[in-house]
Amino acid sequence: MDYDCIVIGGGHAGIEASLAASGLGMNTLLITQNPDRIGVLSCNPAVGGLSKGNLVREVDALGGAMAQLIDQSMIQYRILNRSRGPAVQAPRAQADKQAYQSAARSIIESQPNLSVMMDTVTKLIIDKNKKSGSSPVLGCIAGVITARGHRISAKTVILSAGTFLEGKIFIGEYDAPEGRLGEEAALGLGNFLRRKNFPVGRLKTGTPARIAENTIDYSKMERQDGEEFAPFSFDKKKIPEGFLGKKPVPCWICFTNKETHRIIRENIHRSPLYGGKIKGTGARYCPSIEDKVIRFPDRNRHHVFIEPEGLYTNEMYLNGLSSSLPEDIQELFIHSIPGLEKALIVRPAYAVEYDFIDPQDLFPSLESKRLEGFFSAGQTNGSSGYEEAAAQGIIAGINAAAKIRREEPLVLGRDEAYIGVLIDDLTTLGTTEPYRMFTSRAEHRLVLRHDTADTRLTPKGRAAGLINDERWEQFQEKLRVLDTIQELLNTRGNAENAESNLNSGIFSSFPPEWVERIFLDRKYAGYIEKEKRIIARNARMERVKLDPGLNYFSIPGLSIEAREKFSKVRPQTVGQAARIPGIRQGDIALLMVISQKK
């Protein structure tokens, strides 16, 4: 074999997948169309946010890179939802896009066992005669074929092509085969997957215009400052020198108005989204401005957040104004917004349509059910967002290595991580629109706080092999300090009076965030214990494994709907089977009986 693992695509999923596989000793090749574009923040210049910040910290706790990259490039930092409970709070940081991209490429190029190749994968090499006990439909992955004719063999392949898989951009009447504006799409592989009967569909996303900072009138806007910088990464050794000395930059808020909406409504026929050119389904929770105007006609205004693209440029990102309208219409409606009357558009807004694989065709390990050794991660699985992509990438990389070593895959539970919720939702429920992570999707969010990601997942990262001795010793020392803080709080009485002692001299020698964490654990102890009881009750069904090759149509007593859905999803556990929509309690009880008999 030429390589142990080939990763297709250098986005956020591809970065984490290639670093994880190579970090576990696999000889890994990252194939990307342009190495200069590794780690590009294609859309908004920020990392983190509600539930997304939790994902970033979980990736870091497992041994991933995203937290380190944003720590090296952030230009503003905030904790969102400060006014609400800790279960729904999360960190978010504005990034200098160029600094983030530079840091990403640097970490990729300095990684042992990892090579980078500039090319486009157009076909997969499949060994039809090699099949395991899971009985994949097509056989086993054997490598890839590229546009330049290279045949490269590999034991595993991870697809993380983002929006480039048969990508097509739209700006009004203009369209072109591109994955990002000015960058050609990855053509060939999507059609190859279709010919092999993979369940491939089309999704749509978009991005707003970028404008020149010196053409904005800030006197008509609200200023939004950040907080004191704080790191995403739990690895204190990885925080760059001078990190805390960076000068934060502000963001700004303005609003659309009736005139903005009138311009959009009168020209909606020129939108490819409403004209029928775009067939893919767009993101429900991140709609274009034309979507918002049409779907919410009673709203007189919508927020627009103006965010800097970085310290290296004067371009500003218009968060909330994603569009696929023609450029002349974009100029009209942008100029109708107070403060943007003279705004110069540097880059136009556009929509992009691309191929994705139905994630129900994947095991929770992110390995394909029909092609052994073939993994998929990121937007190729129907998700949206940098953070969701990175989370899937590190799991795919870990499990590709486990596949080669013939070890059990790493599958995180819904009670263990937001990553577990994300992957379980995708592989169990599937998606027909770009999936976005929310705190509301996590039923156990109180025990999945962003500040507890390391205690939840660092032992799993260590067991997988991505947490080195130095990082592990840091973690062990933190646990010892947390125990000391807990003991001191115990001597101070109950949670109510403990809060008044958090800033007293006895705690001043400890990191404030560690003290705050112990206090929150103590304050919400009753609720946390209740959650743990629910988790323990549900764990019984999660422990009952199901044969992935089980013939559900041969089981008497199962409803027809259950037979069809179980055969499609092929759940790994009775717990996963119970989460499939439309499944009756009687069907689950029958599965329990059958599994216990076996």
Q: What can you see in these coordinates?
A:
This protein has 19 helices and 23 strands. Strands 1, 2, 6, 7, 8, 9, 22 and 23 form an 8-stranded mixed beta sheet that branches. The chain is of the alpha+beta class and 598 residues long. The chain folds into 4 domains: 3-201 and 355-456, FAD/NAD(P)-binding domain, CATH 3.50.50; 210-353, Elongation Factor Tu (Ef-tu), domain 3 (Beta Barrel); 468-532; 544-597, GidA associated domain, C-terminal subdomain (DNA polymerase, domain 1), CATH 1.10.150.
CATH superfamily of the largest domain: FAD/NAD(P)-binding domain
Separate helix tally: 19
Rounded average pLDDT: 92
CATH fold description of the largest domain: FAD/NAD(P)-binding domain
Level-2 CATH architecture of the largest domain: 3-Layer(bba) Sandwich
Task: Give the fraction of residues assigned to helices.
Answer: 25-40%
Count of discrete domains: 4
First-last Cα distance: 38 Å
Strand content: 15-25%
Beta-strand segment tally: 23
Model regions low in confidence, pLDDT < 50 over at least 5 residues:
none
- Give me the Rg, rounded: 24 Å
Inertia-based shape: globular
Largest sheet: 8 strands, mixed
Instruction: Label the structural class.
Output: alpha+beta
Name the CATH class of the largest domain: Alpha Beta
